[in-house]
Amino acid sequence: MLAGLNRILDEWLCDSFVELIEEMEVWKWDDATGDFWSRLAKALQQSNISVKWAEQMDIRLESVHTTGKLSWATATRSIRECKMRIARIRGSHADTDSEVWGLDQTTWELMWAGEAAMRNSIPVLRQARYESISDLPGIQKIYREKALVVIPPAMRMSAASNGEQRVQVLILVVQGLSLAQKLRQLMQEYFELVDWQRLKLPSAERRQRDSLKSFERSVELWKDWIRLKNELATLDERAASSGIVTSQAQETESRSNEQRRKQGGIWTKSASRGQHVGFLVMSTDTVSFGKF
After folding, report:
1. CA 158 to mean position of chain CA atoms
2. pLDDT at 204 over 60
């Protein structure tokens, strides 16, 4: 069950089930009908129902998933909520005047192209162990310096935000992986629209702690794999040993039979289900019965 939930969270770019419920605000019901967890999250969100067991589920999820990170979905939700508001009044990418929303044409195009680039790039970034926004490197500027960028009011997380961003999250060139330069550039520009000021970016200590947890979990997986490998090797050795013993026994039996034939005895062997196997040797001198 938890493995299934973890897979669905990855698909929705979320970090927890509670967050998945929040994420459903920007999706229609028809978008969430593909699986049980998505339907449940959408039903809870649409009904505005708060359940305590959702948090308990996330606590259990920690056994298979590192929670508490800033997810891709949370970081970009304010951008996607802007796009959702446009769609709700029958606006569209092609037919709506961007200036009506206080957006220049470049920003307008990024709302669609940037999101598509992010969704196409995340699988590649995950292969490089960048599981969430929290894992990406960032540049922090002190408050006295000029803001790196000021995002438009329509994309700010709240009215309390002035839109000034002094944090830049970098999308690195991932060596050896097929992350196209155009996708990386689009994703970088898309992240310039994120209201980082209102988001709680993890401290260096938190990033280090999360990295350690991930390493510890990988170590445990390696231990399990090594233990299983050793068990299989032991079984193979036992099977091989059993084969050698059987072969030796057959060879000994063959030599004994040949010797008895030379002595002129009559050798018979019989066995029935649930009884010992025995041999009877008759010769001119002795009659003997033994078990083997």
Report:
1. 32
2. no
Q: Which of 33, 9, 6 is nearest to 23 (CA)?
A: 9
Q: How far apart are the first and last CA of the chain?
A: 53
Tell whether pTM > 0.70: no
Average pLDDT over residues 147-172: 84
Residue 169: which of 198, 134, 204, 142 has the closest Cα? 134
- Residue 39 above 90 pLDDT? yes
Strand boundaries in 138-249, DSSP class E: 138-140, 149-150, 164-165, 167-169
As a whole number of angstroms, the distance between CA 35 and CA 118 comes to 23
Q: 39 or 177: whose pLDDT is higher? A: 39
Instruction: Calculate the alpha carbon distances from 35 to 38, 76, 268 in Å.
Output: 6, 23, 69
Cβ neighbours for 121, distance < 8 A, ≥ 6 positions apart: 171, 179, 183, 184, 187
- Please give the average per-residue pLDDT across 135-146, as a whole number: 72
- Domain residue limits, the chain: 2-202, 221-291
Tell me how many degrees the CA angle 17-186-74 measures, rounded to the nearest 5: 20
What's the CA gap between 209 and 262, in Å, rounded?
80
Cα 123–Cα 129–Cα 133 angle in degrees, nearest 5:
75
What letter represents residue 280's amino acid?
L
Structure confidence by residue, pLDDT tens digits, 168-188: 888 877 666 678 888 889 999
Q: Rounded distance, CA 198 to CA 161, Å?
A: 7
| C-alpha gyration radius of the chain | 34
